[in-house]
């Protein structure tokens, strides 16, 4: 491995592996190191959202992920030991994404798949390799790596810290990580349940308890998550057996075997910056928050996709280096908003006071089924949880509006014919729905942009496109420029130094 690669990635969890894949698939040499001896062995993060699957589709392995995971068909609400409601997730986001569902996919399986995909791209993770020291100055970056007691100096052009909540990269850069920790202690377990495998998500609500049951693997394991009773939070050597009576009573199950058990406290923090010079933070190194909505891992993967294409374009000389200045404002704004919203939801749902008890035992069992009857409520829920609603309207990369589509929006999916298929090129491109203006093809040729013309259909109208309008689409599938005329398009390409991908 080169001691001076264009990019060094520290941390080989889902964020780091995705960042390495984004770079490798675009032909950028990269080194990725991790202090662990290999991929994780516990299920940990579970939910893979639709937007993440859309990114994986661009890389060609979304179908493999879906095949190994478990689509969750419904959520059941239980209160006081009785089922009080069931809401279907079937085709929850139909018409909005090729993946209109929530997928359960254990993180250890997920990581092994990403490692295999990375190896196919010619990159091998350097396990058992830790970042011992990091500094940067006008001359560049100097990273000291430690493996088996031996040290090595690496001088990458850029360095990315994807090394988790206790990030060595963040600490070395002196970037603050403000936030706090919730008082409640949680347990998590992967277990086998008597009576067979449950594919549905079950939310068990109680005045003094909260417990989730969801599928982990096709092999039949289930994930149990819940609050540790206050009386047991200081119990030395707390095990699942200490919790078993309360867990089984609340969830109405009998646990036959426990494969993995742990306790944890939930933190909420966002780094003060996501960039320092030529060093960047992504994933848990930059933000951690409550698990509400299954957003954490997917947000880190979103960071990796955003940063990956921008690094690749600048390394290859296909874009102005100022492109990298847009990474932090685009992703830190979303991270701050996510921490704020998940914090409110988490406090309301887990609060020990009367308000929390009423929410769990009275409001949720009746409010959720009532709201589920409205298509707008189901759409809002899918758009938020699936992360297809994430937009970069305030980014300097975003401009214009045509129809309901604004610069900064995720490119809406228009179904058949599939307007997401061209995104597999991982390149800038122009889209038009219906007959475009005269001369558009020649403008695209002069700008070095592939032009993809789609018929004007009811689905395109429903997705929010304007008939005949052009849309400049970024390599990550977001609309950069909506409805530009010829001068606006050429000026935009000139401003950002956008060049054709060879």
Topology, please?
Blueprint: E1 7-10, H1 14-24, E2 30-34, E3 47-48, H2 50-59, H3 62-68, E4 70-71, E5 74-79, E6 82-88, E7 103-104, H4 107-120, E8 126-127, E9 129-137, E10 140-147, E11 150-154, E12 158-161, H5 168-173, E13 179-193, E14 201-206, E15 209-215, E16 222-227, H6 240-251, E17 255-270, E18 275-276, E19 279-281, E20 287-288, H7 296-315, H8 327-350, H9 354-372, H10 375-386, E21 399-402, E22 405-406, E23 429-433, H11 440-447, E24 451-454, H12 458-463, E25 470-473, E26 479-482, H13 486-496
Parallel strand pairs: 1-2, 1-12, 2-8, 5-14, 12-19, 21-26, 23-24
Antiparallel strand pairs: 3-7, 4-7, 5-6, 9-10, 10-11, 13-16, 13-17, 14-15, 15-16, 17-20, 18-19, 21-22, 23-25, 25-26
Helix pairs in contact: 1-4, 1-7, 2-3, 8-9
Description:
The chain is an alpha/beta fold. Among the domains are: 209 residues, FAD/NAD(P)-binding domain, CATH 3.50.50; 98 residues, Glutaredoxin. The chain contains 13 helices and 26 strands. The strands form 5 sheets. The chain has an 8-stranded mixed beta sheet with strand order 6-5-14-15-16-13-17-20. Helix 1 packs parallel to helix 7 and helix 8 packs across helix 9. The longest helix is centred in the last third of the chain and has 24 residues. The chain is globular, with a radius of gyration of 24 Å. Pfam families: FAD_binding_3. Its cofactor is FAD. InterPro entries: FAD-bd, FAD/NAD-bd_sf, RIFMO-like. This is 3-(3-hydroxy-phenyl)propionate/3-hydroxycinnamic acid hydroxylase. GO terms for molecular function: FAD binding; oxidoreductase activity, acting on paired donors, with incorporation or reduction of molecular oxygen, NAD(P)H as one donor, and incorporation of one atom of oxygen.
